[in-house]
UniProtKB/TrEMBL annotation, chain A:
SUPFAM superfamilies: Periplasmic binding protein-like I (SSF53822)
Lineage: Bacteria, Pseudomonadati, Pseudomonadota, Alphaproteobacteria, Rhodobacterales
Annotated protein name in UniProt: N-acetylmuramoyl-L-alanine amidase
InterPro entries linked: Peripla_BP_I
TrEMBL record, chain B:
Residue ranges crossing the lipid bilayer per the database entry: none
Name listed for the protein in its UniProt record: ANTAR domain-containing protein
Name of a matching Pfam family: AmiR_N
InterPro entries found in the cross-reference section: AmiR_N (IPR049021), ANTAR (IPR005561), CheY-like_superfamily (IPR011006), Sig_transdc_resp-reg_antiterm (IPR008327), WH-like_DNA-bd_sf (IPR036388)
PROSITE patterns documented for this protein: ANTAR
Native source organism of the sequence: Meridianimarinicoccus aquatilis
Length: 367, 204
């Protein structure tokens, strides 16, 4: 008999990171439709959706509303670390589980969260490794003034020290600010080999525009010199950015054109970005855990991950981080072109394991 | 001065928990293993092998001095206090025993990683300071030797200031501390007598 299971969705479809939120939501809905259309499965997901609209203070109350007003124990949601940290106390109090499908800066392993997108050893470490080798070791760090940028740049500084690289400068911009002239002026003077950019939303858009202007007026920045790096730029945001993204190098678990997508996608790759793919994979992995076990919807996350066969999903029972492939891609003519892929690696949120990234031939690129 | 945190190598680190079997231990163990540490639990006694661990968690609610194979204040590893009761008597015990970081009970979903970082940094700073204080104490104790050495040099026809400068020059030439140079001068003056005295007492 088919069990109807409430499933929470908590993404912002408006506000400063709406493009990311919408991409994640689309992936989750795609998976819900896929699960519900499958007559072989004994479960049917009924989505219970709330939209915080990018308001940080709306996340916890809306999450509690989902957990209170429905039988949902699992919520797919959140785009920022800030909002994730806001709802964890609610999850603890009310017995909920969050499937968090976007990249983040690591240093967390909640018993109530599955981290389904990349953490630093799956994005920043391979990206820096690639760029130290290809562009040089004089680098510049920038980011929005909050935890993502601070922590990612701290890791970059530490790695630079270990790799004999030199950090020429480090500057932060308030979230939402487009006042980035001083930043670009400094880069124009310092002429680093590359810029690690952890800016988000409008700041990143303004920064990329200003860097494009710099490239057109200063030959030292022309062509592919001094590229801008990102650990969270995906196809989801390209339409908002236009030509200024040309040459941006980004790292993530998947880019369009690579096949297969994520292990949790079960062979499917019709996604717009890794945000969409990771949200789809989250729902599909949850469906695998809940299917064929009556009452599984009431189990805690550790109990679910201890079920027979659960380990094949690639969710670590120790850290709740997912084993993911790593790809590095560069924007050329407005499209992300994968330039390097690595074999899937286990998420290591506290960077306490030994890291040896194994490059592998570029995965089959599908037309 | 801005302190840059030196992140310890936690991937191969060992943590020891001294606490009776309890959900606190389960929650702590989960967090420690997620970070990458190996965990061992002991109760009620802490065996001497615990000295070799990298971190120690203690239950302030029930702890007493006899549980530990070292004197209060002399923990040889970073110690993290698990505090339940905030009764002043327990806090007083903790202040005497010493801890490098604390976590309030009940232990939930987080808090262990930051406690590890703070405990390690505090412990290292504490050990560093203790070493520095030792050195300073020793130098302070050698004040008399310095005065004597300056007097010996001055007795050879120098002013006190000149003798002082000469001693400084010797310390620099020998690449030793001022106090060590003074001690060398005094032992060269007193040396033979000292040796005789020692021999005498050995024989005695």
């Amino acid at each position: 008999m088919t069990r109807i299971i409430d499933l929470g969705l908590l993404f912002s479809t408006t506000g400063p990171y709406e493009l990311m939120g919408r991409a994640s939501r689309a992936g989750a809905l795609k998976a819900i439709a896929q699960v519900n259309a499958d007559p072989e499965r004994d479960i049917f997901f009924k989505s219970v959706e709330r939209d915080p609209g990018g308001d940080i203070d709306a996340y916890a109350p809306l999450c509690e509303e989902i957990l209170n007003n429905s039988s949902a124990r699992h919520v797919i949601g959140c785009t920022t670390s800030w909002s994730r940290k806001e709802i964890i106390p609610s999850l603890e109090r009310m017995g909920g589980v969050l499937w968090y499908p976007t990249p983040y800066e690591g240093f967390e392993a909640s018993d109530r969260v599955v981290y389904a997108h990349a953490c630093p050893n799956q994005h920043l470490l391979p990206l820096l490794d690639h760029c130290f080798g290809s562009y040089g070791k004089r680098i510049y760090l920038t980011g929005s003034n909050y935890i993502w940028g601070w922590e990612m740049n701290r890791i970059a500084r530490e790695l630079s020290g270990r790799n004999g690289a030199e950090v020429l400068g480090e500057r932060y911009v308030p979230i939402g600010s487009t006042d980035i002239e001083r930043l670009v002026d400094e880069i124009a003077v310092l002429k680093p080999d590359f810029v690690l950019n952890q800016l988000i939303g409008p700041s990143q858009y303004a920064f990329l525009d200003a860097m494009a202007a710099l490239r057109s007026r200063d030959p030292a920045f022309a062509g592919r010199r001094c590229p801008v790096l990102s650990c969270n730029l995906t196809e989801a945001e390209l339409p908002a950015l236009g030509a200024s993204t040309e040459g941006v190098i980004s790292a993530g678990p998947w880019f369009r054109g690579l096949a297969p997508a994520l292990p949790g996608n079960e062979g499917r790759q019709d996604f717009g970005s890794s945000f969409e793919a990771a949200a789809h994979a989250s729902v599909m992995m949850l469906a695998r855990l809940l299917a064929d076990t009556a009452g599984a919807e009431d189990l805690s996350l550790p109990e679910l991950l201890a079920l027979p066969g659960a380990e094949t999903l690639g969710i670590s029972a120790r850290t709740h981080h997912v084993t993911l492939p790593v790809a590095i891609a560069e924007v050329r003519n407005g499209v992300f072109i994968p330039v390097k892929t690595y074999a899937p690696i286990e998420g290591d949120p506290y960077l306490t394991q030994i890291h040896t990234s194994v490059a592998q031939p570029l995965l089959r690129v599908v037309k | 001065m801005r302190r840059r945190l030196c992140i310890p190598d936690l991937g191969s680190a060992r943590a020891v928990i001294l606490h009776r079997p309890h959900t606190v231990v389960t929650a702590l163990t989960r967090q420690l293993q997620a970070v990458g540490l190996q965990v061992e639990c002991f109760w009620p006694e802490l065996p001497a092998v615990a000295r070799a661990a990298d971190y120690l968690f203690i239950d302030v609610d029930t702890a007493h001095d006899d549980q530990f194979p070292w004197a209060p204040g002399e923990a040889p590893l970073p110690t993290i206090a698990l505090i339940g009761s905030e009764a002043p008597g327990r806090i007083e015990w903790l202040m005497n025993f010493g801890a490098d970081a604390q976590i309030l009970k009940p232990v939930g979903d987080n808090g262990v990683y930051s406690a590890l970082l703070i405990a390690r940094a505090t412990f290292d700073a504490r050990i560093g300071l203790a070493g520095e204080i030792d050195t300073l104490r020793r130098r302070l104790g050698q004040r008399q030797t310095v005065v004597q050495a300056v007097a010996v040099l001055a007795a050879r026809g120098k002013s006190e200031t000149e003798a002082y400068e000469q001693l400084r020059g010797m310390a620099m030439a020998w690449r030793v501390s001022f106090e060590e140079a003074a001690a060398r001068i005094m032992s060269s003056v007193n040396g033979p007598r000292d040796t005789r005295t020692n021999k005498g007492s050995d024989l005695g």
